[in-house]
Design goal:
The complex is a heterodimer of chains A (573) and B (250).
Chain A lengths: L9 H6 L16 H21 L2 H7 L4 H10 L17 H14 L1 H14 L1 H6 L2 H13 L4 E4 L15 E5 L4 E12 L6 E11 L5 E11 L5 E2 L13 E12 L3 E2 L5 H37 L1 E2 L2 E2 L4 H29 L6 H26 L10 H9 L8 H19 L1 H11 L7 H8 L15 H25 L7 H30 L2 H30 L3 H14 L3
Parallel strand pairs in A: 1-4
Antiparallel strand pairs in A: 2-3, 3-7, 4-5, 5-8, 6-7, 9-10
Chain B lengths: L1 E6 L1 E3 L21 E3 L1 H17 L2 E8 L4 H10 L3 E6 L7 H14 L4 E5 L10 H9 L3 E10 L3 E8 L2 E8 L2 E5 L11 H8 L4 E4 L31 H10 L6
Parallel strand pairs in B: 1-4, 1-6, 4-5, 5-11, 6-10, 7-10
Antiparallel strand pairs in B: 2-3, 7-8, 8-9
Helix pairs in contact in B: 2-5, 3-4
Classes of the chains: A alpha+beta (573), B alpha/beta (250).
């Protein structure tokens, strides 16, 4: 496989008018060996899930049985991404995320149990842990002897993660950090023994002063961490979600993860990769819902026809299929990039999360609609699907915050590109990561910038549309930046449009690459369905991109904001 | 104990089977293949026996390249070795398969030969008996309970209305029926370990098929089912329909 380490992000570059198509083509494929392994793991997963994972029963009991959790542990599903020398299985990002997708197919709560443990719970340790820390904890985490949780969110710090209040103070006499504070909405909070905890501490500054900075700590249950009661939730009821309380928790110096004061960056980086897994879980849930509803609409008759024969039903089925296909294309392109060494994928993973979870909600909602009255009944799975799906657009970065992130990070890249305005922009978005010198150089040395390579004739129109609208997005982003300067940070509705345009372009290029690559590997008959999906999606997508770009200048935003202000002032209708 | 388990790769029961245009074969391009479920019982029994009295389990399978995934699946459950009898065609005649298997089995000096009672694709259910004849070994089929010692096996098999208890000296051939055991799931550890086990490849020239498949046909379309209702309230209506419409109750 090509090594893509250090290459710039495709989406960030695109905002700057440079299309790095070598990141996208050919669409990544797993080696035969890896594929064979994954198939076996998925086979085990399906068999175990069919025998033991009863999503409906878990939901009603608001708990999954200890036996089932034990089963997942014994089979090795807690050690998927832990390296083999630490007792895990060292799977690639693609294999891991495909497994999460399939777990999400069977049960959303279970996907959270395994996802929170691996995607975020142990991730900081994997990325920044010392050899000693890893040796001490990873083997136990791999077997599930210890379950992990990621503890960032606090009652007063949700989207604004920088505002956390948990505090660590170094006690010179005892030579330990004393941790105080509390956390909220912690997945696996009631089950975990291992916690990646983020807390503020006073960090000495070069100027001699001190400043509050976030540090990542590794804390264990036996230090005295207390969990609150299980939250009563709308959905994913059998997953554990609790508050955590730290009262004079004593942690030795060896429990700092990474550098003191660098915790915010660590927290964000952990989430970057975690979001792809979450997106895949949403794809799994969508696939399950689609299978359930097809069984229903082919069986159920009205007006002497099966529901499947009605156009308005068919339209929904087609939309759901397209939604899933595009989400899949984005997700496995992103994991492919990660597996090829790409390190700057924060925008890509955020877009996967936004797209897959927004579409999940639509998919599940439409499935419930097709089921009609029984969709509303607790006797059938549709309402639980709806409840379970709902959290996805909220956690690990609300889709609103993530859209702002996509737009600002994209524009920030332009800011770098347009040095004169760049400085003004640095502050609000600096946590999103600066472009590396290497990346700048890499982009400068490219000869062609605005085009992608030739694709199969059946997809050629999509390629042209992509190039045209990618260029338009670049020009628009530049123009917007010049127009608003640093005030762009407040222009959230415009940011949303830029992000949505970028997400559609990301979906287009991912789908084009996937289908183009499939055409080269499969028979023409076998790819007909995919070509149709790709063409249909691209046709819809470029029109949305156009609308989003046009409404950046011509819109009713001011009027909307005024109405909102008046209503809010009035305090009621 | 030197244990052999014969496994066959078959289409997944959930696969939507499509035929080639000439209806002479199944179109394999979109098929998901699995280990024959009865053979999984045999693999489990082999591994259980090994765990109890020691020894080694060898997986033997005949087929084209694609069957390595089935072999790896069996290894991942905990088998130790594997022999892939590579052939370029799928024999439709069980006798041809049995001759090839017998050749490999007799060279292997196995004490216990396990297999599923039948493959769920062609459902011939003849392998146990033919192998018994070819290898001149005791063969007990459709076994639901098995006790193995160093010298002999005591096997229970289902017969009409009851069970038959059989004893045979080793080496012997046993074929598995549902109920014999619960096959274990392949753990990630097993899957990773299986990857490191080399699969021994053997090429054998197959004898000629005495059976020719003339044509496959799709089964007739079943009329759609009808859901009368759910729970106890639906029973009356169901009974009424079974009596008056389906006329299966009097």
């Amino acid at each position: 496989m090509v090594n893509k380490k250090g290459l710039p992000s495709f989406s960030k570059s695109l905002f700057s008018g440079i299309i790095l198509d070598e990141l996208i083509f050919p669409y990544p494929r797993q080696s035969k060996d890896e594929q064979e392994n994954l198939d076996m793991i998925l086979d085990t997963l399906d068999k175990f899930a069919q025998d033991y994972v009863d999503s409906g029963a878990f939901d009603r009991a608001e708990k999954m049985s200890d036996d089932v959790i034990k089963g997942w542990k014994e089979l090795g599903f807690f050690g998927l991404i832990i390296p083999e020398n630490f007792g895990g299985y060292g799977l690639s990002s693609t294999s891991y995320v495909k497994i999460l997708e399939q777990v999400g197919y069977h049960d959303g709560s279970t996907a959270l149990l395994l996802g929170a443990h691996q995607s975020i719970g142990i991730k900081a340790l994997l990325l920044y842990g010392t050899e000693e820390q890893k040796k001490k904890y990873l083997p136990k985490l791999a077997t599930g002897e210890m379950i992990a949780a990621y503890a960032l969110t606090e009652p007063e710090a949700g989207s604004d993660a920088g505002g956390i209040k948990a505090r660590a103070v170094w006690d010179k006499a005892k030579e330990v950090y004393i941790l105080n504070g509390s956390k909220m909405w912690i997945t696996n909070g009631g089950l975990a023994d291992f916690f990646t905890v983020f807390a503020k501490e006073q960090i000495a500054q070069p100027d001699g002063g001190k400043k509050d900075k976030i540090t990542a700590f590794l804390a264990t249950r036996d230090m005295g961490i207390k969990s609150g009661k299980e939250e009563k939730k709308l959905g994913i009821r059998s997953s554990s979600t609790t508050a955590l309380f730290f009262e004079n928790l004593e942690m030795p110096k060896q429990n700092v993860i990474g550098e003191n004061g660098k915790g915010f960056k660590i927290a964000m980086e952990v989430l970057n990769e975690g979001r792809v897994g979450l997106a895949a879980g949403a794809v799994g849930a969508s696939k399950k819902a689609l299978k359930q509803i097809i069984a229903y609409i082919t069986e159920r008759k009205q007006f002497d026809q099966s529901l499947a024969e009605f156009e308005l039903i068919q339209k929904k089925i087609a939309e759901i299929k397209i939604n899933i296909f595009v989400a899949e294309s984005m997700i496995y392109l992103t994991t492919g990039l990660i597996d090829q060494g790409q390190t700057d994928f924060s925008l890509e993973s955020a877009m996967c999360k936004i797209y897959a979870t927004d579409r999940l909600w639509e998919n599940i909602n439409e499935c419930l609609q097709m089921a009609g009255g029984i969709g509303y009944s607790q006797e059938y799975p549709y309402e639980q699907n709806l409840r379970d799906a709902r959290i996805n657009t909220i956690f690990e970065g609300t889709n609103e915050i993530l859209r702002i992130f996509v737009a600002l990070a994209g524009i920030h890249e332009q800011g770098e590109y347009l040095k004169q305005i760049g400085k003004a922009l640095k502050d609000p978005v600096k946590s999103f990561g600066l472009i590396t010198d290497f990346a700048v150089q890499y982009m400068k040395e490219r000869l062609t910038t605005g085009r992608i390579r030739d694709v199969h004739g059946s997809l050629a129109n999509n390629k042209n549309l992509f190039e045209e609208w990618a260029k338009n997005l670049h020009i628009t982003a530049e123009r917007t930046l010049i127009r608003y300067g640093k005030n762009i940070v407040q222009k959230e509705i415009i940011q949303e449009r830029l992000a949505d345009a970028m997400i559609d372009l990301w979906g287009m290029i991912a789908t084009i690459s996937r289908v183009d690559t499939d055409i080269r590997h499969k028979s023409w008959d076998a790819v007909q369905h995919e070509v149709l999906i790709c063409n249909t999606f691209c046709e819809q997508a470029w029109r949305r991109v156009r609308r989003n770009i046009l409404t950046i200048d011509k819109n009713s935003d001011d009027a909307h904001l005024k109405i909102a202000q008046q209503v809010i002032e009035n305090g009621k209708y | 104990m030197n244990i052999a388990v014969c496994v066959k790769q078959v289409p997944d029961t959930e696969t939507n089977i499509k035929l080639t245009d000439d209806h002479k074969q199944i179109n394999e391009s979109e098929i998901n293949f699995i280990v024959n479920p009865y053979d999984e019982l045999a693999v489990e029994e082999g591994i259980k026996t090994k765990e109890k009295i020691g020894g080694e389990v060898t997986i033997i399978s005949l087929g084209p390249d694609r069957i390595t995934s089935a072999i790896r699946g069996a290894l991942a459950m905990g088998a130790d070795k594997a022999i892939h009898i590579k052939v370029d065609r799928n024999p439709s005649d069980p006798m041809v398969v049995a001759r090839a298997l017998a050749e490999v089995l007799s060279a292997g000096n196995f004490d216990l030969i396990l297999l599923g009672k039948q493959a769920i694709d062609d459902d011939h259910a003849q392998m146990t008996q033919i192998l018994g004849e070819l290898l001149d070994l005791p063969a007990v089929s459709v076994v639901t309970k098995l006790e193995v010692t160093e010298e002999k096996v005591i096997a229970e098999r289902q017969i009409e209305g009851g069970f038959e208890k059989t004893e045979a000296a080793l080496p012997a051939i046993i074929s598995a029926q549902r109920g014999l055991n619960e096959p274990r799931y392949a753990s990630l550890k097993g899957i990773m370990a299986a990857k490191r086990i080399p699969i021994e490849e053997k090429s054998i020239s197959l004898t000629e098929d005495k059976i020719e498949i003339i044509r496959y046909e799709y089964p007739p379309q079943k009329p759609p089912g009808k859901i009368v209702g759910e729970g106890a309230d639906a029973v009356h209506e169901l009974v009424r329909l079974l009596r008056e419409e389906a006329k299966v109750l009097s």
